[in-house]
Amino acid sequence: MKTCVIIPCYKVRNNIMDVISAIPPEVDRIFVVDDCCPENTGDYVRNNCKDERITVIFHDKNKGVGGAMKTGYKAALMENLDVYIKIDGDGQMNPALIPQFIEKIENMEADYVKGNRFFLLDNLTGMPKMRMIGNFGISFFSKLVSGYWELMDPANGYTAISREALRVIPLDKIDDGYFFENDMLFRLGTFRISVDEVSIESVYENEKSNLSVFKVMFSFPIKYVIRFMKRIFYNYFLRDFNLGSVYIVFSTILITAGSVFGVYKWSKSYLTNIPSTAGTVMIPTVLLIFGMQFLISAINFDLSNKHRLILKK
After folding, report:
1. CB within 8 A of 263, min separation 6: which ones?
2. 232 alpha carbon, distance to own chain's centre
3. Residue-wise pLDDT tens digits, 46-81
4. Nearest to residue 33, comparing CAs of 15, 14, 51, 60?
5. Residue 97 has what DSSP assignment?
6. So what's the pLDDT on residue 287?
């Protein structure tokens, strides 16, 4: 299979040459995307790297890691390659593991492969504590949004995707910023495309992350909510209607009815100073209990709904 590596570059001049030199010969093409880097990483690579597999692409303005990857994907798709691998240029991802990612796709085990830093507990010893906590939180919401509950490290940026899967997803709609990884999984999940993981060990030294915690706290939640609602609509009502869809409908109706009726009766009782009867109190209680039961069933169905599609090669 013909493969390529795409490296989004922003403030990684000190590490980029080591990353490129470690990319194994199994890779046919390397695309370096300079995302308007203030360190002129693209020019540095073009002037100093003699690897004939290299193509350097420049952005006139910074678009974010997602924007850089979309540019790289589009350029690589023009060459009709089979596997498209993403690694960062900061040296935290070991390029020697690339053949394992390729093998997963070549053997038709998955169409999208992600690195997994949490498979071996020893891999966690070098991870900064705040980063570990942040990753666990992001991982949970990424699973909720995408439906890939079986993934251990869904937020990981070391990935490989098949040509067939890359052509299916709407690249132009994917987030340009750091939400890119979450958005990729969301898009893949709406098509139920198969995803697998490869155990990796990340290297943490003195690299300074370009990710702003402030931006994540205020921009990610609304994106999670929007994509979660879209996933439920796409997977349970638009492209399929199954037992999970029934659970969702009944839980929504019963919880809404119970909440509205309960609030109305409580407000009326408060304003008139007349206590509600036991029967009146039981009506919203029963509605909410049954609604929660259906909601739990819907969650359980979603957790166990692991039917995935392997795209034909």
Report:
1. none
2. 16
3. 999 999 999 999 999 999 999 999 999 999 999 989
4. 60
5. G
6. 96
Dist. CA 11–CA 213, nearest whole Å: 18
How far is it, in rounded angstroms, from Cα 196 to Cα 37? 32
Q: Give the whole-angstrom CA distance, residue 259 versus residue 257.
A: 6
For all residues of the chain together, what is the average pLDDT?
Answer: 90
Residues 124-150 have pLDDT tens digits of 666 666 666 777 788 899 999 999 999
Torsion of CA 243, 245, 249, 254, to 10 degrees: 50
Q: Is 246 helix (H, G, I), strand (E, B) or coil?
A: helix
What is the CATH superfamily name and number for domain 3-221? Spore Coat Polysaccharide Biosynthesis Protein SpsA; Chain A (3.90.550.10)
Residues 6+ apart with CB under 8 A from 243: 301
Structure tokens at 160: 């490989």
pLDDT level of residue 273 (50, 70, 90 thresholds): confident
Give phi and psi for 53, each to the nearest 5: -80, -10
Pair of tokens at residue 77: 């798709």
Residue 128 backbone dihedrals phi, psi, to 5 degrees: -55, 140
192 token code pair: 């139920």
Alpha-carbon separation of residue 13 from 9, 46, 131, 132 (angstroms):
8, 12, 23, 26
Measured distance CA(176)–CA(68) in Å, rounded: 8
**Contacts (Cβ under 8 Å, ≥6 apart) of 289:** none
Return the SS3 of 84. Answer: strand
Token look-up 């979309």 returns 70
Rounded distance, CA 219 to CA 179, Å? 9
Contact 197, 113 (CB under 8 A): yes
193: which residues sit within 8 A by CB, 6+ positions away? 111, 112, 165, 168, 308, 309, 311
